[in-house]
Design brief:
The complex is a heterodimer of chains A (about 325) and B (about 375). Chain A is mainly α. Chain A is about 70% helix and about 0% strand. The chains are: A mainly alpha (about 325), B mainly alpha (about 375).
Chain lengths: ~325, ~375
């Protein structure tokens, strides 16, 4: 009777059983179906890119780079989208400048400052804000926010008009401007930036936080010296995602702007800078093929920008995840 | 020795020191006084300056007082308590004021919606939501307009988009989760990149591909649904992927160890375990699609005063976002009021769906009864009866 202790070491070396399972017929079919679904997604999304490129080809050959070097937009003759391009950038940057501090503040408020009992409710509130349709924000911005902002805009134009930014194109006409759009878009991206940066901040390790407090640091000291350095990448990613959303935002801009898409530093009044999404939604269906093609090209540029921002943002956010996981 | 008597009394053995959790000290009356005096003095100062200058701007007054308050309170804290306390206090003010200001728009929007929209929707309830707006005009009272045709369109378009996009999205997410091949990495990258696609791009794509070649007859509910499906596909795929990742690996391994084939493991263990999360993601996708306007702008083609069109595959069809958009841009005050009514109905839809996800999330089942899912259906009955 051989006990285990009688065996020599050479005999008990573990050899893993080669685990080989040949897939059954049903499994093979199942895998093909799964891969087929993945391919469908790939094909649909790839088709968007291919089709837009194909359709914008015509304008690219006819107008070439004149599209983005001229700022005179009078379809179907003058096709220059520089004013709209710059306007889109200005709206997005303005929105981000307003939204980022507010978002970081509300993320900190929810995570660190508000009573624990309220935390779940506040998170739901932010999620709720993110689901309100953009058309509702736009409509509210057109009717309500414009009236709220009227006095402020007028004040800025009167007293800070020496800065070219705070001017109006036509004297004494305010509203329906890039400035108003930027603020509405800021309100729209606050929930997105807040919820992502809140999640990233919640993942900052607790021990250094408690250590900071235990060493006599203030709560604000803990925030600036522990939480923010840990979540810096995540916040940058959140800001980029917000920026991508702001660049592609259509309805609020379409409802509020009233403009001629010229290139001007003034952002306070109507008939100044435009926006790509505004241009597409206003002029696309009512114009001949060449204009459509040019607008598709503009849309393609927009698409490429948001794609790049999304990819970089996801990369940054996931990398910050892995670093501190 | 006399020194012995000056020592503090040693703690008695029978009363061990009680451990109390450390609590942050509450604000003393001194702190409250400092805040209050800075606030009152800065408000008074700015108010005096504004009256002398003859300015009448309540918003500007508030803003200037706030800035002055920061200055006064910061200086006061710096002088009395040092730089560290000053930073802490100003930081706390930044966090609270920023957080609360970020919440203000929500309440303002809900307030405006209720004040402007509720009279339109509820004055002759349920007339507004059961009729179309074909007989309404700029002179008629607002309740004669109806959002019924738009509701039909939204339900049909979003329903079609969901039917097409959600199964594909869930299976794709399964594929991405199960497969480690290079191909799945490409698909994952593309899905990731496309999640933030601007709505208008999807709308443009469907318009160029389908609507324009068919001239005016191409606009239909189905075309709008196609654009919505393009938007939903990456969104739901990504969400479902996150949900499937939370299915514990032990379940999968147990299923494999019991010799379950891959398809049964997926369909009877993994997907049922994650079903609540998957349904939640699908509902969130629907909630987003309901409000998407730019995607349907070129493709649905309905005008705000259109008759009911029950057939999404033929003819122009209205939906809620388009209804709001067209009336919001019109000049007559009556029609703008009707737009508020439409916006209220739209937000009701979205809020209802959002509430549904919360109810589902709170009612999560305790543990998956996975052993049942492994059995073929005819043997499950007997397993239940045992």
């Amino acid at each position: 009777m051989a006990l285990a202790s009688d065996l020599t070491a050479a005999e008990v070396v573990d050899v893993p059983i080669p685990l080989k399972r040949s897939a059954s017929g049903a499994d093979r079919v199942f895998r093909v179906i799964l891969a087929g679904c993945g391919t469908t997604v790939l094909v649909v999304l790839g088709a968007v890119v291919v089709y837009l490129v194909h359709y914008s080809d015509r304008a690219f050959h006819k107008v070439g780079f004149g599209l983005i070097t001229s700022s005179h937009w009078a379809p179907p003759f003058d096709l220059g989208i520089l004013g709209a391009l710059v306007g889109s950038v200005v709206i997005a940057l303005l929105a981000l400048t307003v939204a980022l501090p507010l978002s970081v503040a509300s993320a900190l408020m929810i995570n660190e400052y508000a009573p624990k009992r309220l935390r779940g409710m506040l998170v739901s509130l932010i999620d709720l804000l993110a689901t309100v349709p953009s058309i509702v924000y736009g409509f509210w911005g057109l009717i309500a926010l414009q009236t709220y902002l009227f006095g402020t805009t007028k004040f800025l134009a009167r007293h800070f008009g020496f800065i070219p930014l705070f001017r109006t194109v036509e004297p004494n006409t305010y509203g329906l401007s890039v400035f108003d759009c930027g603020l509405v878009v800021a309100i729209m991206i606050i929930p997105i930036v807040t919820s992502i940066s809140r999640e990233v901040m919640a993942r900052a390790p607790r021990e250094p936080c408690e250590g900071a407090l235990a060493l006599g640091g203030t709560r604000w000291g803990m925030v600036t010296d522990v939480i923010l350095p840990y979540s810096r990448n995540g916040i940058i990613g959140a800001a980029l995602l917000g920026l991508g959303r702001a660049v592609g935002e259509t309805m609020a801009v379409y409802l509020i702007l009233s403009t001629t898409n010229i290139l001007t530093p003034a952002i306070l009044g109507p008939n100044g800078l435009g926006s790509i999404t505004y241009l597409i939604s206003r002029d696309f269906t009512s114009n001949p093929t060449l204009v459509k093609s040019a607008l598709t090209e503009a849309g393609l540029a927009l698409f490429a920008t948001t794609l790049a921002m999304n990819l970089v943002a996801r990369l940054v956010v996931t990398r910050s995840d892995e670093a501190y996981a | 020795m006399s020194t012995v008597s000056t020592l503090p009394p040693a703690p008695t053995v029978d009363s061990p020191p009680v451990e109390r959790p450390h609590r942050r000290p509450k604000a003393s009356s001194n702190d409250v006084l400092e805040v209050a005096s800075s606030a009152v003095s800065s408000l008074a100062f700015v108010w005096v300056v504004f009256s002398v200058a003859g300015l009448d701007a309540p918003f500007g007054l508030l803003l200037c007082s706030f800035l002055t308050f920061l200055l006064v309170y910061g200086t006061l804290s710096r002088v009395r308590h040092g730089a560290l306390v000053m930073k802490n206090r100003l930081g706390t003010i930044f966090v609270w004021s920023g957080g609360l200001v970020a919440m203000v728009p929500l309440f303002l929007i809900i307030g405006w919606l209720l004040v402007r929209g509720a009279p339109v929707v509820f004055s002759h309830f349920p007339h507004y939501i059961t009729h179309d707006a074909a007989t309404a005009g700029a002179e008629q009272p607002t309740w004669t307009a109806g959002v019924g045709a738009a509701i039909v369109g939204t339900v049909e378009q979003v329903g079609l988009a969901t039917l097409v996009a959600c199964p594909i999205a869930v299976l794709t997410a399964t594929f991405l989760n199960e497969s480690r091949s290079g191909y799945s990495k490409v698909v994952r990258l593309v899905v990731d990149a496309m999640t933030g696609t601007p709505e208008i791009i999807a709308g443009l794509f469907v318009y160029l591909l389908w609507v324009q070649p068919h001239h005016t007859s191409g606009k239909s509910g189905a075309a709008a649904a196609a654009a919505l499906a393009v938007m939903m596909l990456p969104f739901v795929t990504r969400g479902a992927q996150e949900v499937l990742r939370t299915v514990p690996g032990s379940l999968r391994e147990a299923g494999m160890a019991l010799g379950a084939p891959h398809w049964r493991l997926t369909l009877r263990v993994i997907l049922p375990t994650a079903r609540v999360g998957l349904v939640t993601v699908a509902i969130l996708g629907v909630a987003r699609a309901v409000g998407e306007t730019a995607a349907v702008l070129f493709n649905a083609g309905g005008s705000a005063n259109a008759h009911f069109n029950w057939n999404p595959f033929h003819g122009n069809q209205l939906d809620l976002p388009l209804y709001v958009l067209q009336l919001a841009q019109s000049a007559p005050a009556n029609q703008v009021k009707e737009a508020w009514g439409g916006a209220l109905v739209l937000v009701f839809f979205v809020l209802g769906l959002f509430a549904l996800t919360r109810i589902l999330g709170s009612g999560m089942p305790r543990g998956p009864r996975f052993s049942r899912f492994l059995l073929p259906p005819w043997r499950r009955l007997s397993a239940d009866s045992q």
